[in-house]
């Protein structure tokens, strides 16, 4: 995109779909084909707005096949990875395997993994390091629950997650980092954070990144918002200065809806 005075448009918007534990390998292919056709019909410019999907592990080989060559420039990643590289870790998936399957990204520390699998900031820092070791870009998820939001400590809580989960990474590694701010109270609930709420936290995250890694690095990091994003609310959220994209759950399972989210700039023109 072209340069703007605030620098936002130096960062290519990223529209990411997290399929969670939905879509088996056959359904996943069908969904991605529908998305491809819809975006092709709309002549979507993937150079302008990047599209990525995060299917279940078992879908990744099929997604790789479908996106090979230049036919479908959708990028993809896994929803988690092991902190280890190989060995006796039954049930774990190495970043090395993901890399060999053509993954560009990997989600790290999604709130569902933090809550359901007890993933701590300390563990997540080792997963972030593993992602970089294997050439994957981590999409680090942070965000507060309802009680913390109601207590008014959401900014400090989220920044603590950020600092803890990035412990040990270098400024050079951080340049490619993606952070997703996802308030837990807005995930799958239909409750969407207002654009001003999203901006407040995304800006606070960028300021913290600047303190950790310097202004230049922080200006390159893409900070996404996630939580009940739909085609009807995405344009307002992405109009905010520090929001560089969205991480979409439920609405990414519907090809037409997700394609409309990808085409958010058209809503800006027509809304
Ligand atoms: O990873 C995606 C988020 O958990 C948001 O999910 P949602 O769009 O269904 O609220």
Automatic annotation (TrEMBL):
Belongs to the triosephosphate isomerase family. GO terms for molecular function: triose-phosphate isomerase activity. The active site is at 110 (electrophile), 182 (proton acceptor). The keyword DNA repair does not apply. NCBIfam families: tim (TIGR00419). It comes from the Bacteria. Pfam families: TIM (PF00121). PROSITE patterns: TIM_1 (PS00171), TIM_2 (PS51440). Involved in the gluconeogenesis. Catalyzes stereospecifically the conversion of dihydroxyacetone phosphate (DHAP) to D-glyceraldehyde-3-phosphate (G3P). The keyword Isomerase applies. It is found in: Cytoplasm. Its EC number is 5.3.1.1. This is Triosephosphate isomerase. Keywords: Cytoplasm, Gluconeogenesis, Glycolysis, Isomerase. It catalyses: D-glyceraldehyde 3-phosphate = dihydroxyacetone phosphate. InterPro entries: Aldolase_TIM, TIM_sf, TrioseP_Isoase_bac/euk, Triosephosphate_isomerase, Triosephosphate_isomerase_AS. It comes from Paeniglutamicibacter sulfureus. Substrate binds at residues 18-20, 188, 228, 249-250. The gene is tpiA.
């Amino acid at each position: 995109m072209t340069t703007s005075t605030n620098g936002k448009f130096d960062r290519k918007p990223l529209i990411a779909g997290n399929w969670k534990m939905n879509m088996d390998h056959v359904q996943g292919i069908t969904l991605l084909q529908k998305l491809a056709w819809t975006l092709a019909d709309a002549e979507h410019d993937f150079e302008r707005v990047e599209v990525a999907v995060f299917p279940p592990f078992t879908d990744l080989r099929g997604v790789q096949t479908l996106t090979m060559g230049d036919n479908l420039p959708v990028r993809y990643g896994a929803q988690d990875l092991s902190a280890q590289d190989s060995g006796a870790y039954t049930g774990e998936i190495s970043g090395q395997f993901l890399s060999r399957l053509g993954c560009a990204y990997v989600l790290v520390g999604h709130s569902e993994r933090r809550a359901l699998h007890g993933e701590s900031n300390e563990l997540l820092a080792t997963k972030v390091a593993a992602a970089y070791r294997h050439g994957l870009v981590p999409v680090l998820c942070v965000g507060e629950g309802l009680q913390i939001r109601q207590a008014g400590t959401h900014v400090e809580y989220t920044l603590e997650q950020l600092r803890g989960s990035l412990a040990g990474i270098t400024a050079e590694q951080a340049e490619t980092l993606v952070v997703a701010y996802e308030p837990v109270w807005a995930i799958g609930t239909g409750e969407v954070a207002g654009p001003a709420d999203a901006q407040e936290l995304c800006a606070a995250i960028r300021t913290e990144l600047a303190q950790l890694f310097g202004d230049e690095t922080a200006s390159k990091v893409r900070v996404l918002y996630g939580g009940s994003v739909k085609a009807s609310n995405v344009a307002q959220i992405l109009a905010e200065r520090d929001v560089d994209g969205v991480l979409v759950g439920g609405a990414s399972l519907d090809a037409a809806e997700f394609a409309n989210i990808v085409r958010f700039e058209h809503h800006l023109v027509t809304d």
